[in-house]
Specification:
alpha/beta
């Protein structure tokens, strides 16, 4: 049981959230409007795969399931890198079993540029941390990352994708990620439920899917604006 990008982001918002993800996921309540945004985000991400022309996608699912086969994706990515593929989508990497899959990895003269695609109209700090986690895992896997971009909505349909360079900010999180990833790894394995008292982390930066459970069925304070760009 290691840490994925989603695990890290959720665990840094609230450690109890991550523990529940691992031990009591059936308690999740995902509202319809959130699922719609998830689906829209997936669609936007699929469109963005071709923003640089031809590409190879690394996605492999376990037999008969819609669950990614992480080991197969890591191996497929390694082989694509060895062949010098210019644009790799869903490029998968693992370091001590900690895992990420980059939306777009584009080969350059100085290594690779990393593109994280978000279904949003502006770049948030959460998005930068998301890309920073990927940079951490990929760098520790031996692949040099040159620049890091967040891809948001462009100005119009003729220019639908707007890459924003966040290299300096994202690489600046390297030590912060290293300091927390091992603690989250340990914490999620605890047998007893991790208790965190309700607070701002219940709704910031995103509404927690365990809100009702942790608040004993109190009124849902979901803010639709907080959901913009939640995933992928």
């Amino acid at each position: 049981m290691a840490i994925t990008k989603t695990d890290f982001m959720r665990g840094m918002q609230c450690r109890r959230m991550l523990w529940l993800d691992k031990h009591r996921p059936k308690l999740r309540v995902i509202p319809p409007e959130v699922q719609e945004r998830l689906n829209a985000g997936n669609d936007f991400g699929d469109r963005a795969m071709g923003m640089f022309g031809p590409y190879e996608e690394m996605t492999v699912c376990l037999p008969g399931k819609q669950i990614p086969d992480k080991k197969a994706m890591v191996e497929r990515t390694r082989e694509a890198l060895q062949r010098g593929v210019d644009v790799i989508c869903e490029a998968a990497f693992s370091d001590y079993n900690n895992y990420c899959a980059a939306d777009i990895l584009r080969r350059t003269d100085r290594g690779h540029d990393l593109y994280e695609v978000k279904n949003a109209h502006h770049v948030s700090e959460q998005f930068i941390r998301d890309a920073a986690f990927q940079n951490y895992i990929i760098t520790r896997s031996g692949v040099k990352i040159d620049r890091i971009f967040i891809v948001i909505h462009g100005p119009d349909e003729e220019n639908p994708f707007g890459p924003v360079d966040v290299t300096r900010e994202a690489k600046g999180y390297y030590s912060w990620i290293n300091e927390n990833i091992w603690d989250l790894n340990r914490m999620q394995k605890e047998k007893e439920e991790v208790i965190v008292q309700p607070g701002d982390q219940c709704t910031e930066p995103y509404e927690c899917w365990y809100y009702g459970y942790c608040h004993g069925g109190t009124e849902d304070r979901r803010d639709p604006d907080l959901l913009d760009g939640l995933f992928p």
